[in-house]
Amino acid sequence: MKSADPMPAPPKEACATCSIYRAANLKKLGVNLDAWDYMVALAGNPNTGKSTVFNALTGLRQHTGNWPGKTVTRAEGGFAYEEQRYKIVDLPGTYSLLSTSLDEEIARDFILFGQPDVTVVVADATRLERNLNLVLQVLEITDRVVLCVNLMDEARRHGVQVDDRQLARDLGVPVVTTAARSGEGLPELLRAIAEVATGRVVCRPHRLEDEPPALKSALNELVAQIHALYPGLPNARWVALRLLGGDESMAEALRKGTLGNLAIPARTDFDRANPTVSTAS
Ligand SMILES: Nc1nc2c(ncn2[C@@H]2O[C@H](COP(=O)(O)OP(=O)(O)OP(=O)(O)O)[C@@H](O)[C@H]2O)c(=O)[nH]1
Ligand SMILES: [Mg+2]
Fold first, then answer.
1. CA angle at residue 110 from 183 to 208, to 5 degrees?
2. Considering just the CA atoms, what is the radius of gyration of the chain in Å?
3. Nearest-angstrom CA–CA distance, 235 and 218
4. Which ligand is nearest to the CA of 181?
5. Beta carbons within 10 angstroms of residue 64's beta carbon
6. How far is the CA of 26 from the centre of ligand 2 (A)?
7. What would the pLDDT profile of 17-39 be if each residue is shown by its tens digit?
8. For ligand 1, which residues put their CB under 6 angstroms from it?
9. What is the pTM for the complete model shown?
10. Would you say 43 and 50 are in contact if contact means Cβ atoms under 8 Å apart?
């Protein structure tokens, strides 16, 4: 966050009677998160409405506004839905998982190493093609993805239609269209999150074709070495690919031994190792 908001007020009684609550059986938990069953990450390009979704589901007041780069650290909140408690993490906007700015690294590291049960990629319906770059990158590292195509009201105003069913078939993950500012589509988004989190829906994401044999053997060798150095590091294969691609920040993390800091044996350990403000900031 560039400017600090005041501490959020706890969710009001009215939250329990709002339309999203009634339609979706949602209970906004604010920052009251003693224990949770599933963790959800909100990722996406800058300015696509991640914090707007976060606020609608938690009752918190994460900073929103009409310019990119507002959320610069992760913020956490909670909600309950169908008897399950969810911790939801609002991440800084990122165009790609290959990014290097600090706020983008926070998002990248959490998606890669935070082991969320569901990663919701919030995309801008008016710029869908550009947003799909990040979607495809996220699909390379996790099966458990829901694509939220937001700003549908803006898209309609520009005469843009989104074939969400075809998109879901092509990508192999659930796709939900929303206009988060007015609450449109949020009950459906909640249902999709719950279905993926609980395993009622199993995603079969579109993946790039297999690597050529020479690359495969180099990758396997490198993955074994990374695992020897950092046992249990999630997504070691992705790290190896980045190293082979000459990613300086990955190479630096490996040389300095800081890559291990990103390895999260248990999610609670991650939280302890990376204390951040857990309210709207
Ligand atoms: N018209 C319209 N505006 C929306 C919608 N969802 C969010 N917005 C607006 O879009 C702007 C950006 O929303 P944010 O929630 O701050 O976006 P973000 O993805 O968190 O942005 P960063 O943290 O900067 O990456 C704000 O002005 C929101 O009010 C929507 O569905 N329709
Ligand atoms: Mg934000």
1. 90
2. 19
3. 16
4. 1
5. 19
6. 21
7. 555 655 568 888 877 777 899 99
8. 44, 46-52, 64-66, 68-71, 93, 150-151, 153-154, 179-181
9. 0.83
10. yes
- pLDDT tens digits for range 127-142: 999 999 999 999 988 9
Written as one letter, the residue type at 14 is A
Which residues of the chain register pLDDT less than 70?
A: 1-24, 99-100, 208-209, 260-281
**What distance in angstroms lies between residue 226's CA and the mean position of ligand 1's atoms?**
38
Q: Which two tokens stand for residue 113?
A: 């190493």
* Own/partner long-range contacts of 64-68 (Cβ < 8 Å, ≥24 apart): 68/93
Task: Read off the tokens for 102.
Answer: 């600090």
Instruction: Determine contact, residues 141/116, Cβ cutoff 8 Å.
Output: no
Q: CB neighbours of 120 closer than 8 A, spacing ≥ 6?
A: 40, 41, 42, 43, 53, 145, 146, 147, 148, 189, 193
For residue 72, which atom of ligand 1 is closest to its CA? 23
Q: Could you report the per-residue pLDDT of 29-75, keeping only the tens digit for each?
A: 877 777 899 999 999 999 999 999 999 999 998 999 998 889 988 89
Alpha helix stretches (DSSP H) within the chain: 19-24, 50-58, 102-113, 128-141, 152-157, 164-171, 186-198, 213-229, 236-244, 248-256, 259-262, 267-273
Chain position carrying tokens 């458990």 = 144
